[in-house]
# Entry
Amino acid sequence: MNPHRRSPLVIVSTVLVYFFLYAPVVVLFLFAFNSSKTNVLFEGFITQVGPTEIVSGNVIRSPCGAFHWFCELARNVEVRNAARNTLTIAFVSTITSTIIGTLAAIALQRYSFRLKTFSEVSLYIPIVIPEIVMGIGILVLFSQLFTLLNNTLSLSGDSQLTLGLGTVIVSHIAFSIPFVTLVVRARLHGFDKAIEEASMDLGANEIITFWRVTLPSIMPGVLSGALLAFTLSLDDFVITFFTTGPGASTLPIYVYGLLRRIVTPQVNALSAVWISIVLVVVFFTQRLQSRQM
# Structure
């Protein structure tokens, strides 16, 4: 019996799993080039180039040709603002949560202190708790805190503390830290402390040892945690919905708002662009990880 021969059942199961996962993505990309103005039926690709002409609800001609909905997307100011907010929140929360989560993982892995057990258990609470419960809890916390500070400091008008971009960033940092900590700590389980001891025996202090020995060794885990935090922040809806304010709308919130109206293939174009960006980020992160291994 050939040990390298794959069972037909395994092949069929693999194909079905991948089909189930990626068929909706393929459909989404196809509908981004739909000639219909509505997003219900696929009526063909936009192939004619010319002045924008809409007849019987179908886009017949467009200066951008097949990329009509991508051009419409580029001209949408609300989409640009939502994308800017989303990327700002994702980058700031990812950098902050990665730093805090990495330091927390090192502390939990190497040191013993009185509240260590409580700290380890508390990391799982934001992960296992329903997102809607956490979102409501954060909203109540911000509401009570801002009311107290506004009354104490006698703030009024535009100077009052309200929900906005800052509250969303703080919320994303809060729920991303446990994920980063657990991923980095898993990497630390296989870390050999002998190389740190060798570094300090050669004259390096703790700070130099961390930057030149420890951090490069655990960098694949740090990058994995950062990528996880970044993707969680990009597509988060529930917590963002409860903590966002005027001018802080993100892309998931914007798309949800579009669902209340007529959904055009512009939403599919937005999703296609977003998926492409995420794939590029994942690709480069994987390349960085492979170089660190």
Remarks:
- Residues 108 and 120 are 7 Å apart (CA to CA).
- The radius of gyration is 24 Å.
